[in-house]
Specification:
Length: 191
Amino acid sequence: MPVLPRPWRHWLAGAVLGACALAAHGAGLLYQMPYRWVNTDGQSLKLNQYQGKPVVLTLAYGACKKICSSSVFAMEQMQALADRRKTELQFVIVSLDPEQDTPADWRELRKTRKLQRPNWSVLSGSVADTRALAAALGITVWRYHDHVLHDFGIVLLDANGNIVRTMRHYDDSIPAFLQGVLAPPAPNTPE
């Protein structure tokens, strides 16, 4: 059997771990995963830190100019809608390229995109943990030379870490994606 190149071995290992995690933990899967992440302040945490509130989560990387920018823009629109509906949501971006993205890079992204509110987090982890999370979320990730390629995907988690739904296309309806977690609109308030 041929030996897979190193990046593919990492991806395959992450996919297998993610699949095993899915099989082992039906409810609250993501909050039961043992993986550790580091935020832009260098603090270590697990995803279960977000338990108790709905979470909008995506995977992105700093050098990406297309899909990742579209994902973050969609999340910014979700934040604006949540603000209008007076609904508290957590927004989490996990680095798809933890070998390249540094906490300083992510701090700069947060500053540039004005994502410095306390309900926004940008996390990095090991390559294997990142691939396992991507697999658990159903987001395909692969490398082509030095580029990280991936599907568009934003995931809505309930307060217990269960996947409620996944946005697969940038032009999907944001109100439909957030259905069930947004407070009803105030009477006579334009959306």
